[in-house]
């Protein structure tokens, strides 16, 4: 079971990675 906070952290990490990607 994923917590809302954990899910938010995952989305934030993906978002940052997406921005860093060229």
Could you characterize the architecture of this molecule?
By secondary structure, this protein is mainly alpha-helical. It is 77% helix and 0% strand. It starts with a helix and ends with a helix. The mean pLDDT is 69.
Q: Mind summarizing the main beta sheet? A: none
Determine the strand fraction and express it as a percent band: under 5%
Q: Give the number of DSSP strands.
A: 0
Rounded to the nearest angstrom, the radius of gyration is 10 Å
Helix content: over 70%
Average pLDDT value? Answer: 69
Q: Catalogue the unreliable spans.
A: none
Structural class: mainly alpha
Number of helices: 1
Shape, please?
rod-shaped
- N-to-C order of helices and strands: H
Distance between the termini: 33 Å
């Amino acid at each position: 079971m994923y917590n809302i906070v954990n899910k938010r952290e995952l989305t934030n990490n993906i978002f940052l990675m997406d921005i860093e990607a060229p």
